[in-house]
Every structure is written in C-alpha cells, then in structure tokens.
Amino acid sequence: MILRNTPPTPARLAAAAIATAGVVLAATFAFRTFSLPLLLASIGGSAVIVFGMPDSRMARPRSLYGGHALGLAAGFLAVLAGRSDYAVAGAVALALVAMLLTDTVHSPAGADPIIVATGGAGWEILLIAAGLLLLTDLLGRFVGWCFGDPPA
C-alpha cells in the first residue's frame, strides 16, 4: 500500500468524483430499468473504494469481482434457505468467511447477501452487477492510468 503524505491534486479529485458519479448514474439507470434499486448502495460503496482508495487491497480487481461474486452467491443461498432472519445473517457471515479464505475481502460486498435475500432479486442481478463492476473496474484503471497509479 502506498501512503500519501500530500493530498490528491484537484485534477485527481475531479477525476475520482466524475468516475464515481458516472458509475452511480449507470447503476441508477440499470436498477430503475430492472426494478432493482437496492444493489445501488453496494455498487456506490465499491466506486468509493476503487476511485477514492485505489491503493487499497479492497480496490484490487480480485477483491472487487471476487467479493461481490461470493456475496451474491451467499445471498442466493439465503433465498434457498427461506429468507429468514437467520438465513440472511448466516449468509453475510458465510460471505465474510469465504472472502477471508479467498483473500477477496471487499466491504460493500458484505451487503450483497442482504440485498439479494430481502430485495426479491432474481438471477438477472448477477448480469447487471457484473456489468456495473466491469464499468467500475475499467474506469478505475483509466483514472489510475491517467495519474500514474500502479495497478492494484
């Protein structure tokens, strides 16, 4: 991890803000179109990490994709278990354990099991989330490339 002693430049701040806003706008459009507004918070959290803390382990593509994949999978297990409060709590715990074991911890992904199990999302959420995560990753790489950040 690179520790910064100086604050980011105004250009870096603007790029991070614009990229974050772009991802959230795309997510808002997708979720209004498919009536899945709850995952928006999770994607917004991911954008803040990728663009605001690009040197963080949670900003790595492995953590971004892997954490969300495990969180979504745990959410679907909670659906299969009946969506009870215990199933939802167990799914979040399972997602965390899976992320720890695979070195893919990404804190916004901890909300995914709750969103899937309580929001009535179907399998389409996987494709929508994958597209938005890809957009977040690509914009993060572009912003990093523009400012000379080493790849995460």
UniProtKB/TrEMBL annotation:
Keyword Isomerase: no
Transmembrane segments: 36-52, 64-80, 86-102, 114-135
UniProt xrefs under InterPro entries: HPP (IPR007065), TM_HPP (IPR058581)
Listed Pfam families: TM_HPP
The entry's keywords: Membrane, Transmembrane, Transmembrane helix
Domain spans labelled HPP transmembrane region: 12-134
Keyword Secreted listed: no
Protein name: HPP family protein
